[in-house]
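Reopening this one. Same input as before:
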Amino acid sequence: MRRKDHYYYKAQREGYRSRAVFKLRQLNNRFGIFTGAKTVLDLCCAPGGWLQIAKEELGEEGIVVGVDINRILDIDGVTFVYGDILEEETLNRVLSVCSEFDVILSDCSPNVSGIWSVDHERQIFLARASLNIAKRALKDGGTLVIKAFQGSEYPNFLKEVQKCFGFVRTTKPSASRKSSAEMYIVAKNFRKK
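Same output, byte for byte:
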């Protein structure tokens, strides 16, 4: 079981579903992820903490859609699509709710095996799947926030992101555990081809 820490208890006190909300808050404070956004898609959204933040940021008029292979408890004003992001049918159902998004979020992680090379490759596979969804569902000029585990595949993946966006920065929010190999790629000004 993962160690419970300051951010875990802070999330509990403030009514959030996961400590990950503070990572997204820190990313937004630094990069203005939600500035001007009216539509957000959250990939691998369970348990729904990032959806809570997205809905707070966009308000009543905003469209927030989450997708995951794990069901989540309902969040007022958020549309949840149950399905696998690797399946075309799931993306089609997402696009039937909203055809294009201003912001796409991806905090995807595989079920960790404990074998680092395997976990890294599985996570980058999910990150790449998220990038491919962004190429189809993100508006021109849109923003992508995507988690990627550091390792042998990370530099190549980062280059793939850089080809599609005018602004790309990598960062590790202070809410990330120090021992974690996760990095967040914040990519803005999507160039739709």
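So the earlier flakiness isn't reproducible anymore. For the record, Helices lie at 6-14, 21-31, 49-58, 88-97, 116-137, 154-164.
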